[in-house]
């Protein structure tokens, strides 16, 4: 059977499962559509949250990023997991106790202001929409590589599938589809990782393999460091950047993680406040299963690629271009792997010196090419295809839910047509979902190189706007409506400004003002979210203290979200 | 239930959160980044302890913190009679 047919079976088979679940878990009420009827077991919710969270970036790009950057990629590992500590300790249980359906709804009620609610909706839509674009681009890449269809057609096929199960099932359908998608993606990620670890270090668990020994009897990391520094690359364990930048970047990703609405709303689906606390732990456990493997896969892939070019670790004799392995030929076709024989000696000179280096390996191919590099059977490649698509679709569906519930619940029901029936609200939720995905898919199909920049924007915005407002709403009774609005606006606008100054207005690169290093030394635009959050906190506190205290009933509301008792009663809507 | 009970419960919760976040910051920003130069003599699997904390160890501690907090809060909820 051809590789194409095997890929087809795995991808179409996984779609069949998602369709089946969608039909089984249709949503009939707004409570089912927004919060899966609040009947999701905490472990199930943890698994769904993990799929919701781990996107095409986690599945496809992260291991390659770690392989290329080594220690300097640590902010992604710590940031994207450490954010769950903030979520579990500072937000999830209290927002579950509040017992409503959306993030802007809490902000609107707590700060007794429709303006605050609308500001939150705008932040949510910008952050989530840009994130959806990245997912749809990821779907397009996976389709074009594995199913050999045109990238833009692949994006529309992916969109049609998401629309089908998200529109039909709402949160209920998405929850159970995400559980299936988690199973698909973790198996797809682990099998090649385990094989590679066994081949290279003899350890079954990649996490142990990372600190294990290679054939020569020396440890993997020491051997890798020796090999690549000899070739003129930076050492794998070298910091690469200042400690200040690393701290700021990690903190921005942590705060951004805790402030992303599509993750927060997952915790509205569990029955109790204590379930929300446990569920955050389960979510991180399922995420850690992939992330702790990613750091091992990164180091091992770097070692394997270098060893392929310099067999036996002999840095004086690279292989001949004509003798290159099949996987390199496969990826040359995509343009993501390039060889240029600069000195015409027919050898692949792979070095850290840009002037003499002849091999360019795009970081994004590492995870996808891993099974081929390690000579794994064809069905593993089919599994990787299904896993990559599952990671992108599950995150896209979660983001669509967050956007559509904000539109139908926080704009239409709360402000435009308060008398709308439950059926009408449900219809609007579905309409806004279709409109959003059509819009996002259209933009993504234009082939804009958006993924990396927009993900940074999503994290920066969530960190600078939503997280501080939620946290202060729970932990302070003194923050009032004007303070919260001023804080959110100050946080977002400074973050947006800082990103646009470096990346160009609305990401049009030619309009970038700052092109030679970051404006503030050691603060790259991707790490500005933490500063944006700080600005938000300071502005909100200063403005609130200069204006009137919140009314008594709001202070009572804050008291009530702080204690778990009575969560059942608060559900009534 | 009086307001006084809740404020004692809330203070206990805040102390617990502060303690957990101190550990959270120590293992990630501390051991993984800022104190890494001081830990360079402790080796784990061919690299220094700081490298391992940044790429593996901190994630395991985060997991432990969340489960510990959930467990400790459940006890606190019962102690103050505010459980569901």
Automatic annotation (TrEMBL), chain A:
> Which key words are in the record?
Membrane, Symport, Transmembrane, Transmembrane helix, Transport
Look up keyword Transport and say if it applies.
yes
Q: Name one GO molecular function term.
A: symporter activity
Q: What are the GO cellular component annotations?
A: plasma membrane
Q: What parts of the sequence cross the membrane?
A: 6-25, 77-95, 116-133, 153-170, 182-200, 246-268, 280-301, 378-407, 428-448, 454-475, 482-501, 527-546
Q: Which domain of life is it from?
A: Bacteria
Q: Where in the cell is it found?
A: Membrane
What the entry lists under Gene3D superfamilies is as follows: Sodium/glucose cotransporter
The record, for InterPro entries, names:
Na/Glc_symporter_sf, Na/solute_symporter, Na/solute_symporter_VC_2705, Sodium:Solute_Symporter
Membrane topology note:
Multi-pass membrane protein
Q: What family name appears in the similarity comment?
A: Belongs to the sodium:solute symporter (SSF) (TC 2.A.21) family.
Question: What is the name of this protein?
Answer: Acetate permease ActP (Cation/acetate symporter)
What is the organism field in this record? uncultured Thiotrichaceae bacterium
From TrEMBL, chain B:
Record-linked InterPro entries = Na_symporter_ssu
Keywords of this entry: Membrane, Transmembrane, Transmembrane helix
Give the highest taxon in the source lineage: Bacteria
Query: What's one Pfam family here?
Result: DUF4212
Which residue ranges does the record assign to the Sodium symporter small subunit domain? 7-83
What sections of the protein cross the membrane?
Answer: 16-39, 51-71
The protein's name in its UniProt record: FIG152265: Sodium:solute symporter associated protein
